[in-house]
């Protein structure tokens, strides 16, 4: 299967989860029931997962991308996304209708009486996150800014009829590189209430992470929120990469020349909050949330091993994060692993997906 086809499959994964109960509330108690649904939450990986991971990493490390090609892929990556959107227009990613289920702040921000709210999406693509928000928005004082470094993506986004005539609120899109050293001119420092980052951070080179986080921090108001969702370590999409795709540890080039990184919890915590210690803190929060769900009867107990998996930071943190002290820019409101077993019932295929989901809040004492 080509990487593009792989990606298509991962896109359809999002379709399956649309309009379903939020993050972590469908639990598989009886293995015999497995084929009765399209998706289950927090399903531990199969017993032989360690061997599957080792074999995949070995295969990938044995045949990494040669250095001269790395330069080619990492140089002006936006053009590869331009090609991607020229080939796929708005037919690839489905609308992310689940976004407001996962992040209730988005529901509040789009209510009629919410008052002035500014939301910025970085790496918006063709608008699969902003248009569902705009379509259901009843807040006349909502301002949506959508940025992507692919000119082609922004062109397609602007051709959406909702862009020219939003039912209420305003939307403005533009070309901007999240890793540049200035903010987009439409967004003043400390002016955004919410920044949405959905499957964009994984497209950056690890060398670009620090600047990207600094930019997001700079555009947010004190106490403003980052709503984050992206690929997690050893997701099925990572393990499927064959030889000739590995750029750096956990960082790959797809067949269409777009890049993708697979994150671990402690990496995200270090990047946004500056310390590993917050990982344990944050992980404990996630565990509590899951247990609260049990208390009100909506779910059933997690396996102990699953909880442990959430609360122990992975030692394989990218070296770039350990090379110098990180500033404590944000606090963590949510940081968790969303593990889902997705089933293709027709083909009787099980897919173990791993996503990271987080809410980071800009420290109020920061300007
Ligand atoms: C996987 S797509 C996700 C698109 C959109 N967020 C969604 O949910 O459908 C990743 C997007 O990030 C954009 N992107 C990657 N690196 C970027 C950067 N440095 N600055 C701005 N956009 C970037 C790509 O052009 C692409 O549109």
TrEMBL record:
GO biological process: methylation
Its EC number(s): 2.1.1.-
Domain of life: Eukaryota
Disordered as annotated region, ranges: 1-25
A Pfam family annotated for this UniProt entry: Methyltransf_12
Biased composition (Polar residues): 1-14
All copies of domain Methyltransferase type, residue ranges: 120-225
Cited function: S-adenosyl-L-methionine-dependent methyltransferase.
Protein name per its UniProtKB record: tRNA N(3)-methylcytidine methyltransferase
